[in-house]
Amino acid sequence: MISFPCCKINLGLHVINKREDGFHNLETIFYPVQWCDMLEIVRDNESAKGQVKFTSDGLIIEGNIENNLVVKAYNLLHQKYDLVAVKVFLYKKIPMGAGLGGGSSNAACALILLNELFSLRLTTFELEKYATQLGSDCAYFIKRGAQFAKGRGEILEPISLNLKNYFLCLIKPDIHVSTIQAFSGVKKRGESSASLKDLIQLPMNEWKNVIQNDFEESVFKNYPELEDIKNKLYDMGAEYAAMSGSGSTLLGLFKALPDLSEVKKNYTVFTCQL
């Protein structure tokens, strides 16, 4: 079975406060983008139950395979359902450490594929509960769409947001922003009367002044090149530009795509019409 896990962008990201469990209460808008990986999962009847044969191509995936979220998704379901072995192939195109949620999307799609492959009959709600155990934004990729997220990012509420008349430009420099580093430097804003759920309904030409990613202030201090890219997006005519998640991808929304030939010489660039 094959799936094409997409990525997401964050339109605004408020860090409210730190919780007793060590996580942070957040507020953000998730929006899906069709920059996709390819994930295939098939039965492996020749291996013992609980085994995963994982291979990949495309971007190099570093680290121990057992820590890969696709493998963790299988192990999570195997604990309850005693699954037969599987072969997994992942073609990786979404950059890692980019604030685009590629790994979380892989995990969510793995849960969906395994549910279908083994006829587990898990509901969307049950899949979301499993996804939340794998990562804060994994549950988003079960439903996708435009969603207002709060809590750790797992409490989701669909919102009306149509960006179909806009072009998206994503610029990913060769910079990896550690999530731990990003959170350690961010200023918590506390409870705010101005919710992103309301701010996102304003005309886009007002977003620049009111929809903020709270990670930008501290991350830009450590990586000024990211701020330069954001400013460049505005110089090229972006209606709105921001960092996605905790970085390091910058997004720009345009009414018409500018000439990106020079930018593509130095950075990984993805463009699409939403």
Percentage of residues in helical conformation: 25-40%
Q: Which spans have pLDDT < 50 for at least 5 consecutive residues?
A: none
What is the CATH third-level topology name of the largest domain?
Ribosomal Protein S5, domain 2
User: Structural class, from secondary structure content?
Assistant: alpha+beta
Average pLDDT confidence is 93
**Oligomeric grouping of the chains:** single chain
Please indicate the percent range of residues in DSSP E strands (runs of 2 or more).
25-35%
Tally of DSSP β-strands: 12
Give, in order, the helices and strands. EEEEEHEHHHEEEHHHHHEEHE
- The end-to-end distance, rounded to whole angstroms, is 27 Å
The total count of helices amounts to 10
Using only C-alpha atoms, the radius of gyration works out to: 19 Å
Biggest β-sheet description: 4 strands, mixed
User: Could you say how many structural domains there are in total?
Assistant: 2
State the strand order across the main sheet. Answer: 1-4-6-5
The first-level CATH class of the largest domain is given as: Alpha Beta
